[in-house]
Amino acid sequence: EVAAAGVWGGLVQAGGSLRLSCAASERTGSSYAMGWFRQGPGKEREFVAGISWRGGTIYAASVKGRFTTSRDDAKNTVYLQMNSLKPEDTAVYYCAGRRSLVSSVRQFEYDYWGQGTQVTVSS
Fold first, then answer.
1. SS3 (DSSP) at 108
2. CA separation for the pair 9, 39 (Å, rounded)
3. β-pairing, 91-98 with 117-122?
4. In what order do the strands lie in the sheet with 67-72?
5. Where would I find the H helices in the chain?
6. Are 1 and 50 in contact (CB under 8 A)?
7. Are strands 4-7 and 10-13 parallel, antiparallel or unpaired?
8. Residue 113: which of 4, 29, 25, 11 has the closest Cα?
9. pLDDT score recorded for residue 53
10. What SS3 class is residue 44?
11. Tell me, what's the pLDDT at 40?
12. Which of 6, 50, 72, 112 could form a disulfide with 97 if both were Cys (CB 3.0 to 4.6 A apart)?
């Protein structure tokens, strides 16, 4: 069984960069697609990015061109590189694993979730 074990966020100024890491508790191999979601203050949780078993990626329109997700299966780790951060990117960020070869924008299609980490972008 795979669990998305950890994500490490932080505080950054607008225009800055931050990289989130999500380390799975067991080897993911190439059979899991991974996703990133976020929940801002007073908002519903929303899709941010996803990566398939072969490394194919999808992004929400609000982050496309600024965020990049990648995976290192040898390290059981998925990354979310966030550049040109804006105050509206402030949220709790979650990584999630899906027992499928392709990622999804739908939260209910993910099987495992990390505990989330706070990212705060100051103006």
1. helix
2. 13
3. antiparallel
4. 4-7, 18-24, 77-82, 67-72
5. none
6. no
7. unpaired
8. 4
9. 87
10. coil
11. 96
12. 112
Secondary structure (3-state) at 73: helix
Question: How far is CA 119 from each of CA 26, 67, 78, 95, 96, rounded to the nearest angstrom?
Answer: 25, 14, 17, 13, 17
Encoded tokens for 109: 């299609």
Secondary-structure percent of the chain, ordered helix, strand, coil, rounded to 5: 5, 50, 45
Averaged pLDDT, groups of 10, the chain, 123 residues long? 56 91 67 91 97 94 97 88 96 91 95 87 93
For position 109, what pLDDT does the model report? 95
How many angstroms separate the CA atoms of 48 and 35, rounded? 8
Type of residue found at 67: F
Encoding tokens for residue 110?
């993910």
